[in-house]
């Protein structure tokens, strides 16, 4: 079980991926963009490197991997195979039994035959006729015949044959996709061809004919990569929103592997669900994802918009923009709007948590709650008074804020007993309302109108007082909590952080700070402010009653932090150094949708439980305090440009639930031991020869058995931890290289790996 | 992988009154029959025995109508002046009526000439009625007196002169043969017991009393006067139970339905209100053309008869119960086939494979799922959908607009379809909930079909209509 990976720092590493130990490191020296291996040439790999002296041109080279002893070796013997290739790993494919290599770039197709040392070039016309666009997007080779399938930018798929001859080549065209074909994959025997694109439909073509095709529609998000398992039983698609779907050979969706779903834009902010302590933010288009931080899993996805999402560019789809939970999590308010700027189609929805079905149910839908975009929304948090006193406030760019209350329906025949309706509409000098916030006891409501903060009595809706700190509009406001509840904090556009005393109605202090995010901790007095200055984000934590921050972390990260959230800890952490992180943990979301957190433990402490994790973490920046947890979720697109990547197997991922299942299966349900024994032994044999998906379960059994035999339980836990962290960090690939099974391995065409260092 | 999500049709809550059991019940009457009488109808009384004829007192006549007859089946016209308050006896065989002259006449319903005449009132008698022992008559006159008469001897038994104004209404207790009540313009309702020399109880209504009613149990008394209907508890000594003010003019008549669960009140404001006698809330109301003077409900609520000030008698019959037994019932599979396999309980080692639930999609959803925009629009342009559920049509149009295919779906249609589309748009564009979508649709249609304007008369006419509708709305 070994795995090759290449990275931009010019090294190829050989891993034992089961244990997560690097076996060998080959230094090549230049950036490595994609990596290919051939079963027939085991001691050399093919990599794509940038051509020296020229920008944006790349070449395919083969690298001899010397069989020297020792950890660090040099891979110096480079021989150029093809010039002027595409940087993406989808642009190169190796043909049947490694006889030839195909590369596509723009409208050119190159085929290089290794034995004959012959290079054939074919090109299509560059003219874009009638929506046609002949540029290549991806290429794959038939596993049994001399046939090349190419995907094009206009959605066509071309099947090339007879490309041994320069002139008499032929191609046939398959056309279903309306937009670029993102990836193609042949089945084991080459009878079926799978294709996918932005339509998020997996298309299966039979026998290379355009009339016989099957579809698997509505996979959720555009398909980025497709790969078949080596035995052809499973196929998996990798999506742009950081998700892997596993699909049966009969085109039935079997399951998906997902962590934090990447949405196009996190408009909802980071919200913590009081019930599950999960992080809530935009997920799939129109959905709200509940992401569990502890298990790094998506708990569930709530469909808010409830409309069919059409995967097509240029459509004005409505999406979720605001989310608010009531204090106990029984009510959820969501705002959705269409993307049209001038006349947004607004809907305010209120959801009630139904204990029976363990999910939110739509209670009230309000069309056009405001005449213009809704800027902020909050519930009145009053734990002790119960839900009857629940109030929702929305602020809009139509210069008003509206107060929504629950109304009990007196009609006994009505379907639901409560519904929401507008109770009060407030405005201030016809300024746009930008933010709203309730004080901790719920008696005061602060609404910011451009440059002014107004404070309202929540019982009578009287305007109590106003605060202003010109110039600049108010960007954020929040009330102090606990002992600091008499303070109101506001941040302005012009880089001021102000603290007003509500008792004296005067400015207590102000500081010059360009605050982007202002986030109060719900369990303590502390308020976290993230500033953005000259391309770095800094974190300041302070108490409202003193202008001196109790904690400063400069240069938190290079990217702009957009959102932050305090997530209550299950049990208070015992830390001397960071008192403010005792009760809750602070999470950040950056512009590129990376989720980060501050850890109270130092690097060494965190690494002790699994020393092997070091291998993964060594590339992390070791700053004194903020070592960012390995929750980096690089955007898929970023990965494409930086690293070549191909997902061949996902067995590792499948294994972990299967282990659980097996171990949790009660003994009395299991078949007899004699029956199991043969399977078990067979599985041992097969798993070494050919790691087919069928035997995954058996293999897992084997692994667990092994672990037990060794009576090294730590090893297992460490491995599992390793697994999860790997999942997050790398597109995991597994491939077995075993000397005794070379013949078997020849059948496996694609062996690939790359790994992604977590910068 | 998610399933296809059907188009969300914006349901609009129905404004106005909610449909309750009462609405359904009271709406179950046919269109009224109007009969013209000679003068204001001051009393309508149903015979308590089948076939439930009713006596209508108007001007100087008493007409007896049969259940479905539009012409009177019998007329008593032996009055020199106006007749008042023709009332049936409990057995439906005798009829008594007062008159302008002060006389009271007793008729046999089959005879013509009065059987008895009771003379004693000096002023018009607006109230007469039988006590529940059938042998005595009570009356009230404009001479402020309330009298009790013996039928066999045609003599006055007793005369009470306690009211200080005209006595205009009254009724007898059904449980006690000696008790009757009268209401007067002196704002009081008095309860008399024939065994005593004076009134047993006086209730202050506060307005000239136009109508009184005793519940069948005799415990509750309803009085109407001014704009108020008041309910009193007789057994508690005339304590006010509830005061209803649902009319905006004088309430002139009261009546209970056959079950005693609903109270009806008619008023000069042209409304009949129906109250629940448990909650005393208005559960339904009828509108009439002119002011209502009298009101009666036949036993089993089969007929509502309302008399107006302009002499029009409005008769509403209940619709016959609809029989839902369709002769051509779909043949259901035999019971045996139906239950086959359903009762099977899986054994422990059985592996259950559940049948996937088939989701039923509407036709337009099926077409939208396969991106057939034009056909989806066709599917919702069928007249029944357009007419009865315009929100479905609009929702599909909105969905097409969202998908960016509305223009191509609207284009390339023939004269008939364009006509249909324009009719729909012109009619619905002014409805606020459809306006945003239909304005876009109208815009696109005008854009697309601009070049062909003038080629078809029908389409041109529809364009003009659309223009008018929008113009009217803007003005």
TrEMBL record, chain A:
It is found in: Nucleus, Nucleolus. Residues 270-593 form the WD repeat-containing protein 75 second beta-propeller domain. The keyword Nucleotide-binding does not apply. Residues 695-720 are annotated as: Disordered. GO terms for molecular function: RNA binding. GO terms for cellular component: small-subunit processome. The keyword Kinase does not apply. It holds the Pfam family Beta-prop_WDR75_2nd. This is WDR75 protein. One of its GO terms (biological process) is rRNA processing. Signal peptide: none annotated. It comes from the Eukaryota. WD repeats lie at residues 1-25. SMART domains: WD40. Keywords: Nucleus, Repeat, Ribosome biogenesis, rRNA processing, Transcription, WD repeat. The gene is Wdr75. It comes from Tychaedon coryphoeus (Karoo scrub-robin).
UniProtKB/TrEMBL annotation, chain B:
Gene3D superfamilies: YVTN repeat-like/Quinoprotein amine dehydrogenase. One of its GO terms (cellular component) is nucleolus. It is found in: Nucleus, Nucleolus. Residues 344-475 form the U3 small nucleolar RNA-associated protein 15 C-terminal domain. WD repeats lie at residues 118-159, 244-285. Keywords: Nucleus, Repeat, rRNA processing, WD repeat. CDD domains: WD40. One of its GO terms (biological process) is rRNA processing. It comes from the Eukaryota. Ribosome biogenesis factor. Involved in nucleolar processing of pre-18S ribosomal RNA. Required for optimal pre-ribosomal RNA transcription by RNA polymerase I. Part of the small subunit (SSU) processome, first precursor of the small eukaryotic ribosomal subunit. During the assembly of the SSU processome in the nucleolus, many ribosome biogenesis factors, an RNA chaperone and ribosomal proteins associate with the nascent pre-rRNA and work in concert to generate RNA folding, modifications, rearrangements and cleavage as well as targeted degradation of pre-ribosomal RNA by the RNA exosome. This is U3 small nucleolar RNA-associated protein 15 homolog. It comes from Tychaedon coryphoeus (Karoo scrub-robin). The gene is Utp15.
């Amino acid at each position: 079980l070994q795995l090759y990976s290449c990275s931009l720092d010019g090294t190829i590493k050989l891993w034992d991926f089961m244990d997560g130990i690097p076996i060998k490191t080959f230094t090549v020296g230049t950036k490595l963009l994609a990596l290919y291996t051939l079963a027939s040439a085991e001691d050399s790999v093919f990599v794509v490197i940038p051509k020296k002296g020229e920008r944006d041109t790349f070449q395919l080279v083969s690298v001899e991997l010397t069989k020297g002893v020792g950890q660090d070796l040099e891979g110096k013997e480079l021989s150029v195979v093809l010039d002027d290739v595409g940087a993406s790993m989808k642009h190169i494919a190796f043909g049947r039994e490694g006889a030839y290599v195909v590369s596509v770039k723009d409208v050119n197709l190159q085929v290089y035959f290794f034995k004959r040392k012959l290079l054939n070039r074919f090109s299509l016309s560059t003219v874009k006729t009638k929506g046609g666009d002949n540029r290549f997007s991806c290429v794959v080779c038939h596993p049994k015949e001399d046939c090349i399938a190419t995907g094009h930018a206009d959605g066509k798929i071309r099947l090339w044959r007879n490309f041994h001859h320069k002139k008499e080549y032929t191609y046939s065209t398959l056309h279903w996709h309306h937009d670029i074909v993102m990836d193609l994959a042949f089945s084991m025997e080459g009878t079926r061809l799978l294709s996918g694109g932005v339509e998020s439909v997996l298309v299966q073509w039979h026998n290379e004919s355009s009339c016989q095709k099957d579809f698997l529609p509505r996979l959720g998000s555009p398909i980025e990569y497709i790969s078949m398992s080596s035995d052809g039983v499973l196929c998996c698609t990798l999506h742009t929103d950081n998700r892997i779907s596993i699909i049966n050979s009969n085109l039935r969706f079997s399951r998906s592997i997902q962590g934090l779903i990447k949405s196009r834009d996190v408009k909802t902010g980071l919200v913590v669900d009081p019930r599950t302590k999960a992080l809530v933010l935009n997920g799939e288009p129109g959905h709200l994802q509940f992401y569990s931080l502890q298990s790094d899993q998506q708990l569930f996805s709530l469909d808010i918009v409830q409309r069919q999402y059409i995967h097509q560019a240029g459509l004005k789809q409505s999406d979720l923009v605001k989310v608010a939970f009531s204090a106990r999590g029984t009510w959820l308010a969501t705002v959705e709007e269409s993307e049209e700027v001038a006349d947004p189609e607004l809907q305010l929805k209120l959801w009630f948590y139904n204990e029976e079905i363990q999910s939110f149910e739509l209670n009230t839908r309000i069309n056009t709650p405001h005449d213009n975009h809704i800027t902020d929304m909050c519930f009145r948090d009053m734990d002790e008074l119960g839900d009857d006193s629940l109030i929702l406030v929305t602020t809009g760019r139509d210069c008003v804020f509206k107060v929504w209350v629950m109304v009990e329906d007196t009609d006994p025949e009505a379907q639901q007993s409560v519904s929401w309706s507008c109770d009060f509409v407030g405005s201030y000098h016809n300024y746009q309302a930008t933010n709203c916030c309730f004080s901790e006891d719920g008696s005061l409501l602060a609404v910011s109108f451009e440059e002014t903060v107004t404070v309202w009595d929540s019982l009578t809706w009287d305007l109590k007082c106003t605060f202003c700190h010109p110039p600049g509009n108010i960007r954020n406001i929040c009330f102090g909590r606990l002992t600091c509840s008499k303070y109101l904090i506001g941040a302005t556009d012009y880089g001021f952080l102000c603290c007003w005393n509500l008792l004296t109605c005067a400015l207590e202090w102000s500081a010059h700070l360009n605050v982007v995010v202002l986030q109060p901790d719900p369990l303590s007095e502390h308020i976290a402010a993230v500033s953005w200055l000259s391309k770095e984000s800094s974190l300041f934590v302070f108490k409202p009653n003193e202008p001196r921050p109790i904690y400063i972390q400069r240069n938190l990260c290079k990217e702009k932090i957009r959102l932050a959230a305090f997530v209550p800890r299950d049990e208070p952490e015992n830390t001397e150094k960071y008192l403010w992180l005792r009760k809750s943990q602070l999470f950040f979301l950056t512009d590129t949708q990376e989720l980060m957190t501050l850890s109270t433990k130092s690097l060494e402490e965190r690494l002790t439980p699994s020393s092997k994790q070091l291998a993964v973490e060594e590339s992390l920046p070791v700053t004194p305090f903020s070592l960012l947890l390995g929750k980096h979720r690089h955007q898929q697109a970023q990965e494409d440009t930086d690293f070549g990547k191909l997902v061949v197997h996902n067995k590792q991922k499948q294994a972990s639930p299967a282990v659980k299942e097996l171990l949790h299966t009660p003994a009395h349900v299991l078949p007899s031991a004699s029956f199991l024994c043969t399977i078990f032994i067979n599985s041992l044999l097969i798993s070494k020869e050919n790691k087919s998906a069928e035997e995954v379960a058996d293999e897992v059994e084997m692994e667990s058995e092994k672990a037990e035999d060794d009576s090294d339980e730590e090893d297992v836990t460490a491995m599992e931890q390793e697994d999860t962290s790997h999942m997050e960090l790398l597109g995991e690939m597994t491939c077995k290289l075993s000397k005794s099974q070379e013949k078997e391995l020849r059948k496996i065409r694609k062996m690939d790996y790359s790994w992604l260092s977590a910068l | 992988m998610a399933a296809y999500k059907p188009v969300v049709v914006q349901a609009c809550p129905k404004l106005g009154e909610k449909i309750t059991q009462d609405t359904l019940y009271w709406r179950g009457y046919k269109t009224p029959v109007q009969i013209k009488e000679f003068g204001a109808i001051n009393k309508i009384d149903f015979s308590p025995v089948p076939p439930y004829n009713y006596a209508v007192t108007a001007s100087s006549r008493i007409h007896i109508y049969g259940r479905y007859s539009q012409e009177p089946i019998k007329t008593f016209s032996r009055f020199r002046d106006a007749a008042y308050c023709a009332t049936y006896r409990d057995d439906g065989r005798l009829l008594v009526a007062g008159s302008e002259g002060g006389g009271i006449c007793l008729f046999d319903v089959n005879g013509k000439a009065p059987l008895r005449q009771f003379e004693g009132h000096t002023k018009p008698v607006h109230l007469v009625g039988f006590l529940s022992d059938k042998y005595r008559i009570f009356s009230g006159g404009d001479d402020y007196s309330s009298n009790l008469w013996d039928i066999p001897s045609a003599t006055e038994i007793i005369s009470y002169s306690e009211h200080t104004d005209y006595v205009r209404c009254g009724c007898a207790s059904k449980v006690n043969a000696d008790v009757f009540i009268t209401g007067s313009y002196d704002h009081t309702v008095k309860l008399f017991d024939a065994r005593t020399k004076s009134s047993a109880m006086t209730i202050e209504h506060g307005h000239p009393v136009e109508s009184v009613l005793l519940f069948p149990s005799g415990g509750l008394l309803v009085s109407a006067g001014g704009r108020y209907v008041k309910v009193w508890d007789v057994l508690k000594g005339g304590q006010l139970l509830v005061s209803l003010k649902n009319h905006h003019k004088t309430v002139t008549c009261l009546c209970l339905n056959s079950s005693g669960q609903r109270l009806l009140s008619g008023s000069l404001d042209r409304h009949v209100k129906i109250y629940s006698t448990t909650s005393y809330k208005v559960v339904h109301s009828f509108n009439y053309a002119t002011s209502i003077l009298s009101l009666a409900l036949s036993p089993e609520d089969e007929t509502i008869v309302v008399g107006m000030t302009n002499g029009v008698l409005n008769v509403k019959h209940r619709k016959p119960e609809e029989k839902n037994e369709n002769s051509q019932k779909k043949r259901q599979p035999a019971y045996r086939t139906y239950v086959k396999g359903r009762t099977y309980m899986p054994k422990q080692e059985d592996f259950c494979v559940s049948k996937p639930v088939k989701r039923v999609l509407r036709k337009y959803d099926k077409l939208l799922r396969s991106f057939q925009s034009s056909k989806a629009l066709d599917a919702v342009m069928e007249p029944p959908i357009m007419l009865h559920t315009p929100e479905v049509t609009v929702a599909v149009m909105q969905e097409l607009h969202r998908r960016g295919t509305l223009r191509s779906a609207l284009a390339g249609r023939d004269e008939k379809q364009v006509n249909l589309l324009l009719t729909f748009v012109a009619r619905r564009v002014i409805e606020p909930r459809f306006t945003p979508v239909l304005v876009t649709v109208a815009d696109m249609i005008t854009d697309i079909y601009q070049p062909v304007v003038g080629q078809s008369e029908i389409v041109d006419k529809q364009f003009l209509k659309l223009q008018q509708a929008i113009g009217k709305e803007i003005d």
